[in-house]
Design goal:
mainly alpha, 2 domains, endoplasmic reticulum
Length: 110
């Protein structure tokens, strides 16, 4: 869970470290092109895709290896979401069913 939090929200802290560069480093960056403008141009989803590729090292893989890893990740996420929704439904429905059974049992006694 901590890894997911870091992956989703810590990129702002990583990229804000650029403000601590010295003037010479900033001048060199301006000559080469300011990298901050690249990240400003990217939207949130593109930045997350970039972090995903860099974090898992997918940029080094061939195109077919990249697709295999993505397919495995999609299957894993589907599995987690599907079973999570089933268990959440059971968790919330079970007390209602038990409450109805208890009410039916008390009505039968009266």
């Amino acid at each position: 869970m901590l890894g997911l939090f870091c992956f989703l929200f810590m990129d702002n802290f990583i990229f804000s470290a650029e403000k601590y560069h010295t003037k010479k480093q900033k001048q060199k960056k301006n000559i080469k092109g300011d990298s901050r403008n690249i990240f400003k141009a990217m939207n949130w989803i593109q930045r997350k895709m970039y972090l995903y590729n860099v974090t898992f090292g997918l940029y080094m893989l061939d195109w077919w290896e990249h697709y295999i890893i993505n397919i495995l990740l999609i299957i894993l996420l589907w599995f987690v979401c599907y079973n999570g929704s089933r268990s959440a439904a059971d968790f919330y429905i079970r007390p209602l069913v038990l409450w109805e059974k208890r009410n039916d049992a008390t009505k039968g006694r009266q």
